[in-house]
Amino acid sequence: MTVNIPEELRYFSPDSQAELPASLSEYPYFRYELNGEKPWEQEKNGLPLLQEAWEQAVKQLEEKQLARSKDVKEEVDTLLALFFMALFWANNQPAAPVLWMEKEPDLMVKPINFLERFTYIDSRPYTYMAYRQLIELMTELKKASAVQLLKSSRRT
């Protein structure tokens, strides 16, 4: 099924249409946003939906790293897409990777020093240091999201 890709999701390509991805690890990545589903409104902001795809992409990236392969674009793009989903979903909104810098000041759930750290990643995503930093940001984002969910559950 061909879907229109909204401008805010065109971080990886300027394509305005693509086939609906079969999984979160396939371009154009943002399956739920493109399909009209809203996992950020579900329990735990839908973050558990991303876990398996994240672990698989990290594993593939580490295998390539051990083999000294420089061809990591597909795995890093997958990690970036999954991170964007997690970042925006943790803040109760659909992913909008093209607008990450514009929306950053309003994101309540994010890692410490996110702007500086992600700007570095965004400027050179396929380097070893950048994708190691991305993996660390995801770990911190999961923790920040869990803390936020715990705080909000105490208020109700």
The tally of beta strands, per DSSP, is: 2
Major beta-sheet overview: 2 strands, antiparallel
Radius of gyration (CA) equals 15 Å
Coarse shape: globular
Q: What's the order of the H and E elements?
A: EEHHHHHH
- Regions with pLDDT < 50 over 5+ consecutive residues? none
Secondary structure class reads mainly alpha
**Total domain count:** 1
How much of the sequence lies in strands comes to under 5%
Q: In angstroms, what separates the terminal alpha carbons?
A: 41 Å
Number of helices: 6
* Mean pLDDT over all positions: 94
Lateral strand order in the biggest sheet = 1-2
Oligomeric composition of the shown chains: single chain
Helix content: 40-55%
InterPro entries: YpoC
Protein name: YpoC-like domain-containing protein
Pfam family, one: YpoC
What features would you describe in this structure?
The termini are far apart. The protein is mainly alpha-helical and 156 residues long. It is globular, with a radius of gyration of 15 Å. The protein has a two-stranded antiparallel sheet. Helix content is 54%, strand content 4%. It has helices at 31-35, 48-66, 73-90, 100-103, 114-123, 128-155, and strands at residues 2-4, 17-19.
